[in-house]
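Chains adopt folds. We examine one example:
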Amino acid sequence: MKPAINTQPRAQTSTAPGEIIVLPPLQVRKATPSARRWLNAALQRLLPPLLGLALLLLGWQLAAIGAKGFPTPLSTLDSALTLFSDPFYRDGPNDMGIGWNVLASLQRVAVGFGLAALAGIPLGFLIGRSLFFARMFNPLIALLRPVSPLAWLPIGLLLFQKAEPASSWTIFICSIWPMVINTAEGVRRIPQDYLNVARVLQLSEWTVMRKILFPAVLPAVLTGVRLSIGIAWLVIVAAEMLTGGLGIGFWIWNEWNNLNVENIIIAIVTMTTGSALLMWIGEQITEKGVGNGISIVLLFNILSSVPDDMKTLYYRFIFGQTVTKMIFSVVVIALIILAMVVFVIVLNDAERRIPVQYSKKMVGRKMVGGQASNIPLKINTAGVMPVIFASSIMSFPVVISQFFTIDPNSIGSKILMVLNSGSWCRPEYPIYSIGLVIYIALLIMFAYFYTSITFNPLEGANNMKKQGGFIPGIRPGKPTSDYLNKILNYIVFIGACGLIVIAIVPILASGLLNVSRISFSGTSLIIIVGVVLETIKAVESQMLVRYYKGFLND
């Protein structure tokens, strides 16, 4: 039997190679040279503002051509060079440079704005916390807030019978409303969970205010402060135009009467451009990652006075002395400055590290946790703020007293001498050194107050408990909070004592040795050291990132 033959056609196996896909040629982009890249970035950053400035100057020039008597940019620049060549000249009580007028306006703004802050922020807290007071004050705020600043000025003149306090009164009554409204709104928007925790723990109203309300409301308070300071500058110009005297508003009005339009434009630019330029420079420094830009600008401002201070020390202790006394004075001054700098550095970097252990837990199929860490608590947690707060409170009554006539032999005059730091540690007036004791007490109080705002032991203990962490030997929850609060009280007292030493040394030198305050002592020294250390750390971190090589480069 013959085998069956398959007559179906066989599938032919193709031996031809597969289809070749031709890819486009790979284009490798050449790296832009660093100088060219830097130039492009600079042009992209500088070109838009320069074009905006050119557009402004073009519009200004066209307005000067179309309006008779309106100054051109070149004529205004020429007047500015003449005006700022000697901004602090004195040719009589009614003829002073623009610098003195700006300083006088700054003083009025500081007094009025300071009074508004002292009254407005507590009133905002009161309105936000109490429905009764909210219903009592809200109609008054709605009624008084829209009143024009020029309407408040005659009332101030009637009350105080003087132009100086009347101007500060006008600034006060006009700038208080943003702080009251923003603070009250911030208090109302606090999460109810925070207040519920406070009720469960049976915290006092002062503790709730210090540890919960104020830290949560601080952004709203700062927003109100920024709005109020802008209103204060708007009001002071109008008030000084009507009251006269020394000030930027009266200076502008006087230049208008003299038909010096160039000087009016210069005054407007002076009030806006200077602060805006400094803020822009600070923002650029911060954006580049070098550090806090505003702090660095403030640092340069302090350091600019160092040559004058050195000259003062030279003429006070070195000039006219024998060679031996000159060498001794130089060595003593150098050692005191070096000791203060080292002390401030140690106080600024000192910290208490509290050990924290995290328990192990299962996340999916992996065991995570179990590592040891620590909570760094800085000894000087409050920084320079207690010194600023205490100095402001002590000097505030002295500034207010300048608006009134006080008998030098009265009790009020004696109290003002006690509050004036220039009278402390004077051998001829030892009784006035009582103010130094009050100053020290305020430093300690504000050190604890500011630390309680910036660090909340209760919140830290709750976060640690949620993450499975605990302090060895301390139970989680409230015992941990009490332990942190106890440690914090100890180290805050040590930091406050360090601040007292730094703040008292210049006062002792001024009183006992009759030396004027130097710029690199006390509060200024804390700012200098803090900013320098922060800038060095920021630069080091930037250099590490710049020269870091990952595993792909190995």
Observations:
- The longest helix spans residues 205-243.
- The radius of gyration is 33 Å.
- The chain has two domains: 98-287, 307-553.
- The first strand starts at residue 351 and ends at 358.
